[in-house]
Every structure is written in structure tokens, then in C-alpha cells.
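REQUEST FORM: STRUCTURE PREDICTION
Request ID: SP-0412
Submitted by: Lab K.M.
Chain count: 1
Length (residues): 633
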Amino acid sequence: MPVTRTILRRAGAQHGGAVVEVTAAPVVDVTVIVPVHNCRPYLDRCLTSLLIQRVSKEIVVVDDGSTDGGAELADLYAAHHRGVVRVVHQPASGGAGRPRNVGLSLARGEYVFFCDADDYLGPEALERMLAMAERNDSDIVLGKVVGHGRRAPSSMFDRNAERVPLEDSAVYNSLSCFKLFRRQMLQRHGIRFDETLTVGEDIVFTTHAYCHAGVISVVADYDCYHLVDRPDGTSIMQRRESRDPVSWIRMIKRPIELMTGHVRPGPLRDHLLRRHFRLDAFANLGRPFLEAGEVERKEIAAEVADLCDRWLTDGVRERLGAVDRGRIAALEDIDRLVRLAHIELAVMRRELTGLRWDERDTGLAVSGRVALEAMEPAGHPGLAVGEVSLVLKPRQAGEGPDSAVVVPVASDGEEFAGVVDLAVLPSGVWDVHVAVACEGVVRTGRLGAERDQRIARPAPRMIGGTVALPYFTRPYGNLSIDVGGHVVSPPGIVRLIRARWAAWHRLVLDGEITMGALTPDPRTVRHLVWRERGSGRERRVPVVSEPGGTFTAGQAVGRLRPGTWDAYLELDLGGPPVRFRVEAEPELVAPPRTWWRGAALRTARPYATAGKGRLSLVVRATGPKALLRRLLR
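STATUS: Completed
RESULT:
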């Protein structure tokens, strides 16, 4: 139920003034608007998901001429949830625009949210989105959308975003109205749904809202909106005619005109236009273009050409990929557009057939097969693969496409082979792709998931003081190369050879490190690290290392605070520091040592832990009072 907020105003409290209680009007945080037209089987789930939202809310259900009992069910909910659920009945309008506008005219909430009657919300959806909005004074909040039998947008939901700009972000890729909108912003700028459209009315609405939003936020760590596919296919967007390519491209000109009327020419407008060209125009030159007849193909190409004539700028062109740039050049060549569609939609078959170190042990020899298979219908053109290359893409956050390393390979038909020189790769994780050129278009795909089962993961190698670890990812099994040990732990065992006490209560350790087939360079050994088990406090000790993996380090135990200290050997293998626990046989551990330091008795007892036999050290300091109590027991 909407809560009633009260304001307590203390009038002249210092002079004995009375407390005056001022009661404000009921406050609604969110108005949820639900257009309903023959959605009876889904309406229960939808309204229940809205009623359990833990925010101050009202639910405005606009019945748009339902004839399946949905109107009566909505009235039943309103009767049982007075003050929360309101129902408005109107004749069928044929689309969602008019009922949404009616609901918007009745809304009282600070924010409004639009929910279709066949969809539903996660239990914490509005609570999380409202918290995000209040924290950032947001005008629009996108909540993560998940699809059930329907595709849902995903590019904008990589991570939560308190404040995300339109430029250089993916939020504009989502133009559905299933978002939290500040109602005052909608009122101030007259943002309403286009009631003349049965498809795309929400795109016009959301585009207009984006143009005026000061702060946009994203809730990506919770499934907020559940987009449902109706098994009977009766939803407007599920009807085949709703995605008619020619009608869609003509419709999309309205939001483009609206956006370009609000956003001045420049990088932001080019970024927003790129979305419309890629997802609205050029997407219809793919599968829909192949499925269309000869006459309709010409109409589609003509409509896309008109979009290009009106809004394609050099800035937009620079933001497009090779396939789309090829389409722009071929808009008057229908046969060429058909071939480009086949290339884009072709299944890229690739298989890893060989993986080993080359004779120099610094290059990874990679061989495989790759081919493009065009989609049906029968009679499609043959797709001849041209130049083949391996492309290594860095996984590090913030790295751009220019950071990729291209490795030329030799190819013969579907077969290819090449050598990746790991000495030139900077430290980091590199994902291996295979790229093929076909008629000027480059298709790229991950390599390794399909492979000869006899292929084993190559052993690690040391290359110029840096460890290189080829591996297959989980769960997909693609080939990647970890240069420096960022995600794959390098192999290694550190063993204690001898422990002895030296002058000034120094515990001297002689040890050796083995790393399987690797031979660690003495320069890679950095420190012996003593780490206190309870506090995490650390002390680093210089190490003298020798070729072959032996080392010596000494710790002045008197400098260690009381506690239990575990011994590690730390190496620099070209990435983050790598640590190995020092393993010890009990008979090789030095005996305990006791000495006086001032009036305190100090004890240091090295030992090998039970089970795994790792070197640790217990340091104690006993003061005079504790010693006296011990003697008097």
C-alpha cells in the first residue's frame, strides 16, 4: 500500500513551542502501467509479480478491449487490492501505444515503469532499480532483461553502472520501454507513445526519453524483467508481419528524425546513428533479405539507400564493420548484397588439428581446418575461403581492437598451419581466433573447441624470463595462451634442503625449486616471504639464487612478531607474483631456539605442518609476569 509520509516540524521549541505534525499527501514511488489485451493466461503471474515489489507503488491496468476474461480478472485484483491496483477499460485500439498513454496520464508516481501483461518482474526488480535511481538522481534506469523463448538485449548489462553516458556505451541498443523513467522528465518534455504505430511505438518513446535524460543508470546484477514468448504466437511482436523489413525501415525513420532533431551533429549523434544502421537497417540485409522475394529485395535496398542518403556520415561509416561498409557500396547491386548476406550468415566450421612447440621452443605451432558453409535455401553460392590468419585478442579490460596480434598462416584449401611467436606477446591472457577472408569480408571465430581428441595441452615454457602457458578454456574448450601466469597457475615445487641457525638468531634456509620441464632463471626468484597466519602480515627476505634452481635465504627471527608464520618462495614469471609454499621434511627442520630479549623470553620453533609437510614457524614472547605465573604453577 502507498505509505503516507509525515513531516514533524518543531515550532519555537526553545521557547516551549508545540510540535506540529503536518501530514502530506500519499506518496507513490513507482507507477507500474500494464496494457492488457487478451492476456488472461499470463495476467495472474504478471500482477502477482508486481504486487510483491517492496516499494511504494500503484499499478494502473489499462484494459484495451479484452474479450478473453482478462478485463474481469483485472477488476478482481482491483477489488482485492484497493488503493494499489486501478483498472481502466477502453475500446480496443490495436496497439500498446494508446493504453500506455492513458496509464501515463493517470500516473502519480515519481517514477513510471511499463510492464506488458504477458511478462513479469523479478521479486526485487523495482526495489533495486528505485534504489539505483534515488542514489544517482537518475532519469532512466535500465534493469537487466532476460528472455524466455525470446531474444533479450544483453550488451548493456555487462555490469552495474551508477551513471553511464549515451556516448561510448551500449545503453542505446535497448530501445524497449521496459525501464524505470522519471515521470517529471516525461511530463516536462511531452514524451508520449506514438499511437499511430502498432510496432515500434516504444522505440519512438524511449528514443525521445534518452534525448532528455540527464542521468542514466544500469542494474545488471539482477534479473529484473522477464520477457516471455507466448506459445500461441499471438503477441504483436511475434507476428511475422511485425518484422516486415520494408515496414520496419520506414518506421525507424521516425525515431531517427526525432533523435537527430535533439542531438547536434558530432560523435554522440554518430554513435546513436550507428545503432540504427546496424540493428535496424543493415540487419534487414541479412537473413530477412535472403528470405525475401526479388521485388521485395529491391524495396529493402532502396529504403536502406534512402537512410544512407539522409543520415550516413563519415563518423558513422568509421564505426561500421567491413560487412556493413561492403553493403553500403553494393546497395545498387542486388546480387552482391545476396552474396554478402550469405557470407555473413554462413556457418564457420573450424577445427584444431595440431598444437605443439616448435624447434626453438618459443613458437607455438598451430594447425587446423576452416571453411564457410552458406545457409539454405538450396542453390546458394559456393563460398571460397581466401586468406587465413590467426588472431590473438587480449582479454584484459580496456584493451581495444587495435591491440590484437595477427599471425599469418599458410593455407591449402581448408587446411592451415602457422607459428605463434610468443616472444612478441606482452604479458596477459590471449584468446586465439582463426580469421578467414571471403570476397573482402573477414569472418572470425574462436579456435579449439572442436579439435582432435589426441591433442594435449602443451607443457609450459620459459621465454625470456616469462612463463607461457597454453591452455583450453572451461567450459567451452577454446585455445588461449596465458603469458605470465595470470589465470593459469604455473607448475612448481619448492623443497627445503636444509635449515640451520646462524648468528643473531637468523634462520637460514637452503632450498630448491623445480618447475616440471621448466628451468627457472635465477633472476625470476624474488623473495622468501614469511606470512603471519592470523593477521596476514608479511615479511620479505632477500634470496640468493643459483642456476639449477637452488637458493638461500636467512630471516632474523627476532624481527618477527609473535604468531605463526608460513614460508613462501615468490617468483616473478612475467605476470603477477607467483608464490609456492616451502615444503619440508620434519628431519630437515632446524630445532627450536630460545633466548632472552630484555626481560622477555623469546622462542622460535620451526616445524613441518601435519599432512602436507609445509614449513612454518611459531614465534612466542613471554614476559616476566607470565614467566612467574608459569613457575608458580
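NOTES: The first strand starts at residue 6 and ends at 10.
Reviewed by: T.R.
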